[in-house]
Design brief:
- With 326 residues, the protein is of the alpha/beta class.
- Helices cover 44% and strands 19% of the residues.
- The chain has a seven-stranded mixed β-sheet, with helices on both faces.
- Strand 1, helix 3 and strand 2 form a beta-alpha-beta unit.
């Protein structure tokens, strides 16, 4: 249509119609936050994600609506929530954690999904590759193999005389075999022998504890994922009882009584996910947004635990720590 014809057509419209069309409010971005966390417990991850969106200029109730869905510790519960989540018609789904994402995938959710997972998302078949995810999902993976060796290096600083480390891992965790190889390689370079304990249940964990206590391994390295984190308090109790220090990769592990962690700042990861949601809300395709790795790491030392099991933490390490629990 030519410019003058368009102007004449526009002029013929009632003034109220023209003004009403111009003033039509933009639909708020609607996000479904989905997590296996419990509703009655404060979620630092949720708070970080909301803060990330706020930093991008979003105001809840004005141009943003976040519906929070909580799995109450169960991925099965997440699957049960899916019909209600779909009825809410979110523009983007935020899946916090691999158990949550797995539940959404099994339930057949086809909406754009932004995730944080501890697993290798390629091996888990969530995406085709880190650079080109394909499909309808993308996000941040905590799967950083280089950090496995760094944890053992920190352990060696505290226990220079250590000779053997017990590795506790969930063999069903996608990427676990790669972590095991990385741990073996790093341990060899540090003069450490390793004993591997694949555990898939609480019963298998107890059998591993019995063996570790009998053989008097010098330390425990637990591979970070939702499964091992669910037993963080139990690992801490064993560690204190037998004075065998335990390390991992997520702050929660040290906060529940274990010696230390060195790994990604989980809250920063969730803050970063806000940028993905923003881009998708503005029209970007999830499958074209590369999966990222964490950019910030932290060292958290539980000094109270160290004293309880008779370990002296070098001052140089305490100075480097991002958090010291006393």
């Amino acid at each position: 249509m030519k410019r003058r014809s368009f102007q004449r057509s526009l002029a013929a419209l009632p003034l109220a119609v023209v003004i009403g069309a111009a003033a039509q409010p933009k639909r708020p971005l609607r996000v479904a936050w989905v997590s296996t966390e419990r509703k009655d417990l404060p979620s630092r991850n949720f708070a970080a994600f909301r803060a990330g969106l706020s930093e991008l200029g979003y105001v809840e109730g004005r141009d943003l609506v976040i519906d929070a869905w909580w799995g109450e510790g169960s991925r099965d519960q997440v699957e049960k929530l899916v019909p209600d989540i779909l009825r809410a018609q979110p523009d983007v789904v935020l899946a916090s954690g691999g158990l949550t994402l797995g539940a959404l995938v099994r339930a057949g959710v086809k909406l754009p999904i932004v995730f944080s997972v501890s697993a290798d998302p390629v091996e888990a078949k969530f995406v085709q590759s880190f650079a080109r995810p394909g499909g309808q999902m993308t996000g941040v993976s905590l799967f950083t193999l280089a950090l496995v060796g760094k944890r053992l290096e920190v352990l060696k600083e505290i226990l220079p005389g250590a000779r053997r480390v017990a590795l506790i891992a969930n063999p069903q965790h996608p990427g676990e075999s790669q972590e095991l190889d990385a741990a073996k390689d790093a341990a060899s370079k540090l003069g450490l022998a390793v004993r591997y304990f694949p555990v898939k249940s609480e019963g298998e964990l107890e059998l591993a504890f019995a063996d570790i206590a009998k053989q008097r391994d010098d330390a425990i390295l637990a591979f970070a994922d939702g499964f091992t984190m669910g037993f963080a308090a139990r690992i801490a109790a064993f560690s204190l009882q037998h004075k065998i220090p335990a390390i991992d990769g997520w702050a929660q592990f040290a906060q529940q009584g274990n010696l230390l962690i060195y790994g990604p700042v989980i809250q920063e990861v969730h803050r970063r996910l806000a940028a993905y949601v923003d881009k998708i809300g503005k029209g970007a395709k999830p499958g074209e947004l590369p999966v990222e790795l964490p950019t910030k790491v932290e060292l958290v030392i539980n000094l109270k635990t160290a004293k309880a099991i008779g370990l002296a933490i070098p001052n140089a390490l305490l100075v480097r720590a991002d958090e010291v629990i006393e």
